Task: inverse folding
């Protein structure tokens, strides 16, 4: 393995350990953290690539956070990178949860813990929203994109359609729109 | 063997679900049918999983594994739940890198990116409805809304990192919780 790849893998592992400590809110917080760390700070990936990892990670089975980490890690440093990202993201919650099991009965009704957690939950939406405002620029390029986004939103929230199906529909819509455009440009 | 059983059980949960709350019915079913947990305990883990960082599925695996068979049980169950990421998603990652210059894949992704944005908007609505619920006007918690507004401000204007924001929000939750 090249020296650069080893240092990249190590770097991914350490950063994902940190990210793993702060992924609240059903996993979407990880998108915000990767956006800050790897799009804004280090420029390893673009917003488009992050959106790709998120939606593919959402549509393969298993933990969305784990899947997104594997996709990012593989892109950044191959198989070792994917393993490093997955291990990094999994170890902190695993250790914390193991600790919780042992103090479960004392903690579960603790007033102060509950108050702090109410605060943390209140921050989840702003965290996701701050990432969203940046991703919108690269995800919504024209009117067709707005249409697809609105349809996905409605299908998810009101029809309660399976997310995997929505992602597949989005892929089909993308192919359709772009192919129609190509034909039109040619003629 | 209990470790193998835990591993296989969570492997199945992992392969047949797509993260988050969609895992709850499957976990419930597996825990009850094996007699590993009661319904009350399953409800408890969901609450605890909300309070601790990390994906819900992993939290449940760790909790269920540790309660039934100690630390090794927790490791077996967690390995089971991350196996889809290591196999299917790894394949997807290879595929994505290999074909990223492909025109058709790029066109499909053009449609998938806005879907992702739409889904995130839907998550924001769902999370808002549970995270800001309270008693003001019968349905809002003013403390939570205030903490949310401060968090948004430090994130967007103050350029704070996510960990810093979470720590601040926890502190504010403690301070305002008694009011």
Result:
């Amino acid at each position: 393995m090249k020296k650069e790849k080893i240092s990249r893998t190590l770097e991914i592992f350490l950063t994902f350990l940190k990210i793993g400590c702060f992924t609240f809110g059903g996993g979407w917080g990880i998108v915000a953290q990767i956006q800050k760390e790897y799009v804004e700070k280090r420029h390893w990936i673009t917003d488009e690539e992050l959106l790709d990892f998120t939606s593919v990670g959402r549509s393969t089975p298993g933990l969305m956070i784990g899947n997104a980490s594997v996709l990012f890690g593989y892109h950044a440093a191959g198989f070792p990178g994917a393993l490093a990202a997955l291990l990094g993201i999994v170890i902190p919650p695993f250790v914390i949860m193991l600790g919780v099991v042992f103090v479960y009965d004392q903690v579960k009704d603790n007033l102060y813990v509950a108050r702090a957690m109410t605060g943390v939950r209140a921050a989840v939406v702003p965290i996701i929203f701050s990432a969203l405002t940046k991703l919108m620029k690269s995800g919504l390029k024209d009117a067709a994109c707005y249409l697809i986004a609105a349809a996905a939103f409605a299908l998810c929230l009101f029809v309660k359609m399976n997310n995997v199906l929505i992602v597949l529909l989005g892929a089909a819509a993308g192919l359709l729109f772009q192919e129609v455009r190509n034909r039109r440009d040619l003629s | 063997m209990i470790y193998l059983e835990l591993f296989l059980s969570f492997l199945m949960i992992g392969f047949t679900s797509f993260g988050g709350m969609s895992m709850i019915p499957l976990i419930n079913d597996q825990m009850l049918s094996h007699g590993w947990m009661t319904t009350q305990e399953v409800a408890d883990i969901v609450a605890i999983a909300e309070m601790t960082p990390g994906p819900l599925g992993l939290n449940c695996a760790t909790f269920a594994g540790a309660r039934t068979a100690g630390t090794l049980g927790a490791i077996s169950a967690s390995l089971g739940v991350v196996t889809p990421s290591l196999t299917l998603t790894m394949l997807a990652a290879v595929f994505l890198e290999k074909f990223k210059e492909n025109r058709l894949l790029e066109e499909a992704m053009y449609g998938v990116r806005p879907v992702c944005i739409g889904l995130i908007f839907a998550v924001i609505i769902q999370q808002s409805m549970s995270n800001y619920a309270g008693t003001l006007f019968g349905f809002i918690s003013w403390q939570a809304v205030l903490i949310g507004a401060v968090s948004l401000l430090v994130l967007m204007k103050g350029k704070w990192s996510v960990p810093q924001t979470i720590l601040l929000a926890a502190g504010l939750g403690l301070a305002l919780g008694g009011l």
